[in-house]
Design brief:
Blueprint lengths: L1 H6 L3 H4 L1 H7 L3 H28 L6 H8 L2 H31 L6 H22 L1 H29 L19 H15 L15 H30 L2 H4 L5 H10 L1 H25 L1 H9 L18 H18 L7 H24 L14 H20 L1 H12 L1 H18 L1
Length: 428
């Protein structure tokens, strides 16, 4: 359920329009979502072995540190905490205000206040303990799954759609350039982000050698099935050309299927989905900073664990402060940026290369789970994601350069923090 909550957020309701614009053919459009799930599964196979080998907090920070050098782990951990996770928390929190505006007029200041209150509330729940955060996560995940399944069944049975939409296209599949498919996979992969959520909390999972891989595969298969069903419903509700450049595809499709009441239903589903994803992100993100702080590579005090609640409470507070600072800086609902997906693609590719390195350098280390299809499936993941990254560099150069620049800022901080850690060790 942590994987489901982390993956199914706002993406499935907002990104299909961008995918349809790049791939205006129903069959190719659905194929992109299937390929996105297959690519994520290929990455999950590698992460399952790594997570079972190193059942520690921190995820890819730990794998890259062990495979290469602490600087490699620090760079990806720095980018993940300050850009990907803090930025995602801020974006989702503002999304709650955006969703509530359909029900009540709150204005821009109201949206900001609701976003800050949402971050504080979700952070407090996770501050109190892993169990309290997990209960909220499980409840919201089940609400999302049941809600989406009910909407899909009702949409096909009684909705005002048309099966002819599945065969309508103004573009031949063979005429679509391969670069368009690669660029379309950017918003698709963004919508699958979070499939590796459980590896970040592996130290707090019972029997991680069994349950980390099981959580990745089960959660991802559930999400892939739901994404295919929901996108098929979108095509049933709207012609593919009507989806192009439509930002709120979920709301528009629901109105087409069920009338004005469908728009309210979609807005309620979005709010519930965003809240669940926000809680899961707040549960996962602090474990990155906590793991880095244990090695002396983060700010002082972040390695502390609450005496009673047994949570990395300082790291949770630090993430809340970073997310609120971003909200006050941006003061609007940020667009889903390609640089976030680009950064994640690079980080997960680095994870997979770490799998090869650790197989070679630590052949005798205990592996409760061995990646299925090694070495071919991980190689497929690297090749496919490398092609997507190249397509993004060509098609979205500014966003990709921003991601690389932010990652590069980790270097001076690493040397400063490692120097301080070395000084403290000598004084002790």
């Amino acid at each position: 359920m942590l994987v489901v909550s982390s993956v199914i957020g706002v993406g499935i309701f907002l990104t299909p329009g961008a995918v349809a614009d790049l791939l205006p053919h129903p069959g190719i459009f659905l194929a992109a979502w299937l390929v996105g799930g297959a690519l994520s599964l290929a990455g999950a196979l590698a992460n399952a072995e790594l997570g079972a080998m190193y059942p520690h907090a921190g995820g890819d920070y730990v794998y890259l540190r062990e495979a290469y050098h602490p600087l490699a782990g620090f760079a990806v951990g720095w980018l993940s905490f300050f850009v990907i996770y803090a930025g995602t928390v801020a974006t989702l929190a503002i999304g709650v205000g955006e969703g509530l505006e359909l029900f009540i007029a709150i204005g821009e200041s109201g949206k900001i206040a609701i976003a800050i209150a949402t971050i504080l509330g979700a952070s407090w729940i996770n501050y109190l303990g892993v169990r309290s955060g997990a209960r909220v996560n499980n409840a919201t995940a089940y609400i999302k799954i049941v809600g989406l399944v009910v909407v899909v069944i009702a949409g096909f049975l009684v909705g005002n759609g048309d099966t002819a939409h599945f065969s309508e296209s103004t573009v031949e599949a063979s005429h679509l350039p391969l670069t368009s498919f690669g660029l379309a996979l950017s918003p698709v992969l963004f919508s699958y982000l979070g499939w590796n959520a459980s590896v970040y909390v592996a130290s707090e999972i019972k029997d991680p050698g069994r349950n980390v891989p099981l959580s990745l595969f089960t959660g991802l298969l559930l999400c892939t099935a739901l994404y295919l069903l929901v996108n098929a419903l979108y095509i049933y509700a709207l012609p593919i050309d009507a989806m192009r450049q439509e930002v709120r595809v979920g709301e528009v499709a629901a109105r087409a299927l069920f009338g004005d009441g469908g728009g309210i239903l979609a807005a309620a589903l979005v709010v519930a989905s965003v809240l669940g994803c926000l809680n899961a992100t707040i549960l996962v993100g602090p474990r990155i900073a906590y793991a880095m702080a244990l090695d002396g590579l983060f700010f002082k005090g972040v390695d502390q664990v609450h005496g009673r609640n047994r949570t990395p409470h300082i790291a949770i507070v630090a993430q809340a402060i970073a997310a609120i600072a971003l909200i006050l800086l941006l003061r609007t609902f940020p667009s889903i940026l390609d640089y976030t997906t680009f950064a994640i693609i690079l980080a997960t590719m680095a994870d997979v290369t770490a799998l090869y390195t650790l197989r070679r350098n630590q052949p005798n280390r205990s592996r409760p789970y061995a990646a299925w299809g090694y070495p071919l499936v991980p190689a497929f993941y690297l090749l496919a994601n490398g092609s997507i990254a190249l397509a993004m560099l060509i098609g979205r150069p500014i966003e990709c350069l921003v991601a690389l620049t932010v990652g590069a800022t980790a270097i001076p901080f690493y040397f400063a923090l490692s120097r301080n850690a070395a000084t403290q060790d000598q004084s002790q």
